[in-house]
Amino acid sequence: MPRQVVALAGVGSLGRYVCEAFLDFSDFDVVILTRSLHGKWFSDLDIPTQRTDYDVDSLTHILNDIHATTLISFIQDSSPSWLFIHQNILSACLASNSCKRLIPSEWIGDIEAFPFKPDFYARTRAPFRQILRDLKGRVEWTCVCPGWIMDYFLPSGGSAGRKKYMKPIPDEFPVDPDAWKALIRGTGEEAQSWTSARDIADAVVELCKAKTGTWEKITYLAGEWSTFNAAIATLESHRGRTMPKTYKSWEKIAAVLETLGGEDEEGMTPKLEIAQVEEMTVKSYLAVPREKTLRQRKEYFRAVRFRNLEELLKEGGD
Question: Rounded to two decimals, what is the model's pTM?
Answer without folding.
Answer: 0.95
